[in-house]
Amino acid sequence: MYIIANGMREFENVQASLKNPAMDGRFPAQGQHMDADVLVIGGGPGGSTIATLLAQRGRRVVLLERDRHPRFHIGESLLPANMPIFEKIGALEKLRAIGRLKLGADFPRDDGSYYTFKFDRALGETPPYSFHVLREEIDAMLFAHAREHGVDAREGAKVEGVEFGDDGVTARIADNGAARTLRARYLVDASGRDAFLGKQLKLVERSAEHQSAALYAHYRDVDYNTGDPGGNIISVYRFAHGWAWFIPLPDGTTSIGCVCKPEYLKQRKGADNADFLAQTLAMVPHAAERMTRAQRISGVRVTGNYSYACRQMCGPRWIMIGDAWAFLDPIFSSGVFLTMHSALHAAEVVDGSLREPQREPQRERALQKRFERRMRDGYARFAWFIYRFNSPVMKSLFANPRNVWRVEEGVVSMLAGDVFDDRRVLRRLTAFKFIYAIGSLLDFRRWRADLRERRRQNRTQFSGGNTPPDAA
Length: 472
What we know:
This protein is an alpha+beta fold. It contains 15 helices and 21 strands.
């Protein structure tokens, strides 16, 4: 996969794109003047998490958010694997106070029934629950939480460019309209789909294996599934042109969106977004019966070019986390978890790199290699399922799961975010791939036709949309 195959060999080449290619990678000594130890770009979950973790270790951290909280952001369903990270930074009870309990995910069958993967059946050690959230609320909460831990957290501060030198990084900032510079020993790019550093270094590449775009809105008076009277399950529906999500939110509304093939969205051709979303939802089997009383209460947003990755995620005195490095189709609600998980482990890289400047850059590079390998492996495990989700074989396996060799429990663990460390889970995911391969061979013609169609769609680009990239 493209997010695995590239990367490590890019490390030496990227520095030519920086302002000062002659830098030798050494860290400035503690005594040299710096405005901060670490500058974090982006005040979403990833940026706030790493800022808090580094502040807890005594680092001077400046966290810059270009917008002002609260601000809208998609990504409203968390995974159980998020919970230990919230607990580690001391924010789990704050999350519990504003979230809506999430207990699993259901995937409807063609006959109108559906199968629910409950998190309490996970094979691994993840908690049996998570939360649905309003992102403007948890993003604001985490940003304030970072500030409470001593982070210099600023809103309305946009980083316009950075330059690296042999004594650190200098950032040019539009701070509430005033031009400023800020010097730090280390840079963390948590700018989300802005991909700030990836664009400056020309590292961003669209996915060669998966392309999609989304349109979405909030509704009230959407019915829950009959087996979910409390609204604690996310529903994922397949349809001819992609898939749709139904997420019950804490305020009683429901987030509904459709992630579609680029070729289908091109048919929009200037049509009203609300009408196009309504027409698309009408194609989603069994969704209409949940929307007989529904009323849309927000505008319809359209976002294109969903999947991409940067060829490299770290270099001398800088590191990318979350969507600043790569973005996957959100079908398994993995975005916030992957962002916070990468923040958790990037904090180890940054703190370890700054701890002993005299041993750099060798120590930093070793830490970065381990971090990069870990993140690429985890993303790839999610990506394998995402790329094949609408295939006939995957559709059958998710609609009619069997727990042979405890494979279903392994899939539940994957849906809970357990894709990094638990060997029991990783073995079951390998077994699932084996079962998938057998199913594909038994229905080879359909499998080949689906593969050709996916490749054809991946050559189609949709760049339209009314939603700018949001920091995450």
